[in-house]
Fold each of these.
Amino acid sequence: MADVSSASAASPAGSEIAIIGGGCYGTFYARQLERARERGAIDFGTLLVVDRDQSCQAARELGTAPRRRLIVEEWGTFLDGWLARPRAGERSDPIGAADAIVPSPLMPHLMYEWLVRRARDRWPGRTVEPRPLDVEAGTPYDMLAPDGTRYVSFADWLCPTHCVEPGICPATRAPRTWEVGERLEELTRRLNRRRATAGPVLFTCRHRAYGVGMFDVSEVQAGDAAVARAGAVGSSTDVLVGTVSACHGASSLLHLGAA
């Protein structure tokens, strides 16, 4: 059984990488990152595998390790506590060790949900609510989910498992000429012509080592600051929020009513 603890427990010295989910993806990511650290491809202090089930696949298969912890909590509860902790500055070493998040391809739009909660705490007397992203991004795959999240992808083919999105696409065998983040920037400009829309606030997952992608907590903090700036104007505005990679992404609208 892996070491089970709560997010509020004292953290070991050094940076932390939080893997969202302890199922098949999280188990694979943990194995790969530990191999990468052993071989000098990446450096970090502790892996946190976050799952609400203390008997999840990662707990059953990975065993114990001195620099890995299983955090048994709901994802949103964990993020609220973990992201609220004070931290040092941004990552400066390419294989260095700022705190980071490894998202799961099957998770809900957690970072957007976290921004909604942050905005409601920041402006308790103001309307803060999700709004459906009802304008298409124009990617080959473009679907509006019932909860208002728009899922987009440049791939209209079956991507290889754990693809690192290299410069040469392994599916087309041609240069990858697209970036979801750029498309969401263009979408934000189009939305802003209809009604005030800020952003986009993007959490961009990039390959870091051994097939594992992540984004730094400094990127999350910058996104929260961008929402704060958009709301500080005081007028009604929307903020486009996306958790993306080069090829795929989830995008949502955060509506801030007039102060």
Note: Residues 1-13, 89-96 have pLDDT under 50 and may be disordered.
Amino acid sequence: MNIHLYLYPQMRIRDENKEAAIREKAMEMIVKEGFDGLSMNKLAKAANVSPATIYIYFKNREEMVQELFKITQETFAESALRDFDPEASLEDGLWMQWRNRLRYVLEYPVYFQFYEQFRNTHLINHKSVDMSVFKNNMQQFVKNAVKRGEMSKMEPEIFWSIAYGSLYALIKFHLQEKKMMNEDFKLTEAKLKQTLKMVVKALKP
């Protein structure tokens, strides 16, 4: 007999599989129906658990959204840093970042949509999400590129807009499967490389 459960019968054991199912279904539901469309009863049915089970893992909807946002960020950071070397040349490093970020969006489309939906809302406390390792790698990469004379020194917002704005625009066209003239569009490696060449040229001193 589990003496701990015998002494404390009101306590429930956390089940990682149930917790994962709740998280995944919650994220899908929020992306599809928005925060106001998130109902604990509907979520419980979708995740095949009781409403009471959800409260073992989350106090309320707000805490759930914060935890889900944290997961999307941690997964993104892990994906973006895969095989990435901050000492790489500007072009090689950006190419690795572009490939990693595209892979993340394609492997975790719901995570990407969830992040886009909540990154600028009052529901998210960004300070609770530790992105220090990711940020340090990105900052070191940029510093190295500037030091080597591969790019001009600029504000982070300007660098991001030039270095990644084009990538995410192409990704959105790819996900929508439409060109600006309403024709079919598919993002290929050739199109990525063509765009990257122009981006690297724009970043040069």
Note: The mean pLDDT is 89.
Amino acid sequence: MQDFEIRSAREGDEGVVLALLRELAAYEKLLDRFRVTAEIVKRDYLSERPLIFCDLAIARNEEALGLASWHWIYGSFAAAPKLYLADLFVRPEARSRGAGKALIAHLARRALAHGANAVEWEVLDWNKPSIAFYDRLGASPIKGWIGYSLAGEALERLATR
């Protein structure tokens, strides 16, 4: 039996979401890119029309164990939505409690309830513990696709053409 619940982040959770995202950025060695503030969490995650959604794993003592942030994408050829998992993080001390699996299972149920045909995400190639965890869930890498990003000066240069 779980000693925690999975629930949607709500007003008042800005600090918790911010702290968990910062811990994830530190774990991924990406703190130099971290720009999230409590105001951004309130605006983008917790507003009436959020740009991204967030679910939390919360222990009975109200301690936050982890989070999953996600948004909808659309598979044009499949003509079906997909749930895109942007961030999954469980605090190291809570990783043996099943919170990560519970968060992904929660998203899988949400995806199916909305007619989605997949939950997709990315993982850093060096993150062997997470890759092993995803493999144990039955997930598999998307073969044949390479992720791209147009950002910074290249984005600005192209936009001004």
Note: The beta strands are 4-8, 53-59, 64-75, 80-90, 119-121.
